[in-house]
Write a structure and sequence with these properties.
Layout: E1 11-17, E2 26-31, E3 34-40, E4 46-50, E5 65-67, E6 70-72, E7 79-81, E8 86-88, E9 103-104, E10 106-109, E11 112-117, E12 139-150, H1 154-158, H2 166-169, E13 178-184, E14 187-194, E15 208-215, E16 219-225, E17 229-240, E18 243-253, H3 259-278, H4 281-286, H5 302-309
Antiparallel strand pairs: 1-11, 2-3, 3-4, 4-9, 5-6, 6-7, 7-8, 10-11, 12-18, 13-14, 14-15, 15-16, 16-17, 17-18
Length: 314
């Protein structure tokens, strides 16, 4: 019996960082319970296809090559464009009507590459927002990166943002002084403010305020003030229905600081801060989903979150 009844939710999911897919490159990956291939054409456009060639099943990510804005199969040289259409069969004059690869909508936002998943193969119904900080010269980029593979589901991880009492028991800090959440189509926004940093950050006495936005169940970002002004962007990408690839990227406002010095200080600070993210892993990897939990006063808006999350399975 599965631990989680959800399946793969609909929405946008992070596949990789932009810098890891240069022009002319091909990357194989396994996400959404599928073998996928991502490639960037000579124009710079990113495309994502199911990895197996519709002709005779070769894996396009193993020996496949970019030609223009298409990918060439290593087996017989058939070329496929980003929409899944066959662009060329080198030894045939006519392209069969059935020659079509399964393609996924892809977007590049904020130095990350996203793929759209919909169980009914409908086109995207909303878009990932641009972060103004990403293109602001006073913000230190590229992303300072952390990543983990966790045996859980994105919904379980996203629910943490409104599970306020767990800050005390799991993260060993006081109940947030400031907390709130609002739910709308495709996005929920939340605020957590604590009078001191979590105990993992030894010696840190600064107040911490986090204002987050979850865009679907696969992507969230938060603006955090404390010792640094940062944007923390997190991708929660399902590998399968019970395994998630978690990426966390951080950028910081320079405020006149030397870039190299700020990068060193930010790395030291975030290395400790990243430990906080991992404190939930043992819980997530060994719990089950309770469809009808026995909630108590003060548990946070978990029921509201779950009603909001239900839209991504319709």
């Amino acid at each position: 019996m599965p631990r989680f009844p959800f399946g793969i939710p609909n929405g946008w999911f992070v596949l990789t960082y932009s810098e890891d897919l240069p022009r002319g490159s091909v990357v194989r990956m396994r996400y959404l319970q599928r073998e996928l291939v991502a490639f960037r054409g000579v124009s710079g456009v990113v495309s994502v296809l199911v990895a197996y060639c519709p002709h005779l099943g070769a894996h396009l990510g193993v020996g496949g090559a970019v030609v223009g804005d298409t990918i060439r199969c290593p087996f017989h040289g058939w070329r496929w464009d980003g929409q899944g259409a066959c662009a060329e069969i080198p030894y045939a004059k006519r392209i069969p009507a059935a020659a079509r690869a399964e393609a996924f909508p892809a977007r590049e936002r904020n130095g990350m590459i996203f793929v759209w998943h919909d169980a009914q193969r409908r086109p995207p119904s909303w878009e990932i927002p641009e972060l103004p900080e990403w293109s602001d010269a006073d913000w230190l980029t590229p992303w300072l990166r952390y990543e983990w593979t966790v045996k859980t589901h994105p919904q379980e991880m996203a629910e943490n943002g409104v599970d306020w009492p767990h800050f005390a028991s799991v993260h060993k800090t006081t109940m947030p002084d400031e907390r709130g959440a609002s739910f709308g189509p495709h996005v929920y926004r939340w605020t957590v403010g604590a009078s001191k940093e979590v105990s993992t950050l030894a010696g840190a006495q600064d107040d911490l305020v986090m204002r987050g936005e979850n865009w679907g169940l696969g992507y969230n970002f938060l603006r955090q003030t404390g010792r640094f002004r940062t944007v923390v962007a997190t991708g929660l990408t399902p590998i399968d229905a019970e395994t998630t690839h978690m990426r966390m990227g951080v950028i910081a406002k320079r405020d006149g600081a030397d870039a190299a010095e700020l990068a060193r200080e930010l790395r030291a600070y975030m290395d400790e801060h990243a430990v906080v993210a991992t404190q939930d892993f043992a819980i997530w990897e060994n719990k089950i989903f309770r469809a009808q939990p026995a909630l108590a006063e003060g548990d946070g808006p978990i029921a509201e979150f779950r009603r909001w999350a239900a839209q991504f399975y319709v």
